[in-house]
Amino acid sequence: MARDTDARTVYASDRGRVCPSCGRSQRQCICRSAPHAPRGDGVVRVRREVAGRNGKTVTTIQGVPLASDALRTLAGELKRRCGSGGSAKDGVIEIQGDHRDVLVAELEARGFTVKRSGG
Q1: Is the CB of residue 62 less than 8 Å from the CB of residue 116?
Q2: Average pLDDT over every residue of 98-113
Q3: What is the pLDDT of residues 37-94, one digit of tens each?
Q4: Domains in the chain, number
Q5: Residue by residue, what is the 3-state secondary structure of 34-59?
Q6: CB contact set of 113 (below 8 Å; sequence gap of 6+)
Q7: Range of 91's domain?
Q8: Domain membership flag for residue 8
Q9: Closest CA to 56 of 89, 91, 86
Q10: 60: alpha, beta or left? (left if phi > 0; alpha if psi -120 to 50)
Q11: CA-wise closest residue to 78 among 93, 57, 56
């Protein structure tokens, strides 16, 4: 005999992205008390990637301890500084082209601990 009151979650795609204060997803958060910045070791990693991008070079920046809105703002400023396009999604900033030296210097000037990773 099946229970009518069984209301358990079978699948949730936003698991791990829940506000610790109110228990809702970050997009539906009502408390806005926590900045929802990604947690890491505090080191911003700048690397050059080519694989899986049809031979195009992209500089990626990971580990920036900022909320998603501030991350998008920083990405826009870095794109203007490099004079190229890019995006910010899932906590990663992507800048088109190889701009590692410029980005490391700019991020260090902003007070971040920066490390070049990869090749």
Answers
A1: no
A2: 93
A3: 455 678 999 999 998 888 899 999 999 888 888 999 999 999 999 999 999 988 899 9
A4: 1
A5: CCCCCCCCCEEEEEEECCCCCCCCEE
A6: 42, 43, 44
A7: 35-116
A8: no
A9: 86
A10: beta
A11: 93
Per-residue buried b or exposed e for 76-92, using 16+ beta carbons within 10 Å of the residue's own CB: eebbeebeeebebeebb
β-strand 43-49 against 113-116: which pairing, if any? parallel
The CATH number of whichever domain residue 82 belongs to comes to 3.30.780.10
pLDDT at 34 over 50: no
4 falls within a domain: no
Query: Which residue reads 């080519």 in tokens?
Result: 50
Look up the pTM and report it.
0.66
Residue 104 lies in a domain: yes
Separation CA 117–CA 119 (nearest Å) = 7
Do 69 and 17 meet the contact criterion of CB atoms below 8 Å apart?
no
CA distance linking residue 88 with residue 61, whole number of Å: 9
Amino acid at 74: L
Residue 78 lies in a domain: yes
Give me 55's structure tokens.
């031979």
